[in-house]
Amino acid sequence: MRKLLIGGLLAAVGVLALGTPAFAHDVLVGSDPARGAQLSAGPTSVVLTFNARVQTGPNEITVVGPDGGHWEDTSKATVDGDTVSTSVAPLGPAGVYTIGYRIISADGHPVQGEVQFTLTRAGTGKPVSSGPATGPAGAGGSGGGVPVWVWIVGVLVLLGIGVVVVLRMGRRTEDAQR
Ligand SMILES: [Cu+2]
Fold it and tell me: 126 CA to middle of ligand 1, Å?
């Protein structure tokens, strides 16, 4: 009985930990610039390609430079079937640029992520806006609508309940054996 309970508990924790809500969501299958690209000149646009159609709605693309400035002309991305794009201002300092996206999946759920590329030669552009990264690039998270800490608290609460139950069961069995 005790083994069964512990097994069940582990299964529950596993489901909580691994059961991401990102099951049938759109997945990024390609980008221009490509992930990890080394570019000597900045791109004029960013195009992200997904494995399924993207819904019209609040689709966002941001391009955040090594200094935290934003380089996307507008974070309101243009949707065309399974691609999402936005135009980019001439880039500035050399370094790593992060393309952040948050798009509406075919199933209506938001999906977010990042693609980084490196500008190897500084451009002459100025950021569209400066300051700390906001929007998808700075939001973090794993693509679901539920922040990570909610999952962690859930697991801890479940673990706590499980330990109490297992201890009680153990005590009762010992009593019964006496
Ligand atoms: Cu979904």
Answer: 37
